[in-house]
Amino acid sequence: MYLHHVAAYLPATVVANDHFTRLNGLSSDWIIERTGIRERRRAAPGENANTMAIAATEQVLREAPAVPAAAIDLIVGATYTPHDTIVTLAHAVQHALGVADIPVVSISSACSSLLNAVEIVQGYFALGKARRALIITSEHNTAYNNEQDTVAGHLWGDGAAALLLTADKLAETDLRIDEVITAGAATVGKATTAVTLKPLDRDIVMPHGRDVFQYACQYMTQVTEQVLKRHQLTVQDLAYLIPHQANKRISDVVLRNTGLAPERLVSNVERLGNTGCAGAAIGLADTLPRLQPHDRVVVTVFGGGYSYGAMLLTRE
């Protein structure tokens, strides 16, 4: 299975840290010290998880003409901030593309949904039910976020990314998906209460940030080392590591734990905030043009409910 292309969509509105200084007294320096975040994007009125998903899809198709919309035979959508829980972002994308009578699936496993979506595509490909798949990750965090919350209200940003996956190699720049490992760790720590979003409350709450920090560092390190070991590789064999973009301090701990050189860490949390399951995909879109033949990349994720995973990619 191959990753043919990735493209991202970001809303135009930039919200800098001084917005929260004016709103609730949090200094920019304090936010940067604790999270690394300097600014984030906010969807405009009329934008939502579905519209951003469609925009990312249109972008990836413009940039990858080898896979026209009519050739797509599977759509998988991923979000925990849906605009509509019935007409999901995957349905919205299918409608926008006008591609009928193909499987359309939506998934939510918090910020790790990207890799679970890849596993869904693996299953369809393995069963011979699809050969050209579209994965869309899209988060409209600001629709649910309480900016007055001084614990977590300053963390969140909006954005989307679209990935084209194919059963065969279409271009020299394609990345081979060597392996995806995912799991849930809902039995440890405060997994079921540390980060919650109850739609009727319309509020993302993180009462146990220290617990999230501890287990995010632990599991992203562990699963990164696991996927490398299974392929007889070390972290020195990686061109880039792309972690879930939740907090720069978490990424830095994973960097130290694995022994990866700092210049090989991909981070966008400074300018985008936490964009949920779209964050690592946006990072992959930014990294794709820099990859050279034989480069390897690991994407590692961790989400609320304490789901986690890692994916190993190789440019042949």
Report what the structure shows:
Strand 4 (74-78), helix 4 (89-97) and strand 5 (104-107) form a beta-alpha-beta unit. The chain is α+β, with helices and mostly antiparallel strands and 316 residues long. The model has no long low-confidence stretch (mean pLDDT 97). It has helices at residues 18-24, 28-35, 49-63, 89-97, 113-126, 209-229, 248-258, 269-272, 279-287; strands spanning 2-9, 13-16, 39-42, 74-78, 104-107, 132-140, 158-166, 175-184, 196-198, 203-205, 240-243, 296-303, 307-315. The protein has a nine-stranded mixed beta sheet, with helices on both faces. Strands 2-3 form a two-stranded antiparallel sheet. The chain has nine helices and 13 strands. Helix 3 packs across helix 4 (89-97) and helix 6 (209-229) packs parallel to helix 7 (248-258). It has two domains: 2-166, 3-Layer(aba) Sandwich (Peroxisomal Thiolase, Chain A, domain 1), CATH 3.40.47.10; 175-315, Peroxisomal Thiolase, Chain A, domain 1 (3-Layer(aba) Sandwich). Helices cover 31% and strands 25% of the residues. The radius of gyration is 18 Å and the shape is globular.
Q: Determine the structural class based on helices, strands and strand pairing.
A: alpha+beta
CATH architecture of the largest domain: 3-Layer(aba) Sandwich
Approximately what portion of the residues adopt beta-strand conformation?
25-35%
Question: What does the average pLDDT come to?
Answer: 97
Question: What is the CATH class of the largest domain?
Answer: Alpha Beta
Task: Estimate percent helicity.
Answer: 25-40%
Total domain modules: 2
Global outline:
globular
CATH superfamily of the largest domain, by name, is: Thiolase/Chalcone synthase
Number of strands: 13
Enumerate how many helices there are, as a single number: 9
Which runs of at least 5 residues are low in confidence (pLDDT < 50)?
none
- Order of adjacent strands in the largest pleated sheet: 5-4-6-7-1-8-13-12-11
CATH topology of the largest domain: Peroxisomal Thiolase, Chain A, domain 1
Q: What Rg is obtained from the alpha carbons, in whole angstroms?
A: 18 Å
Query: Major sheet, described briefly?
Result: 9 strands, mixed
SSE topology string: EEHHEHEHEHEEEEEHEHHHEE
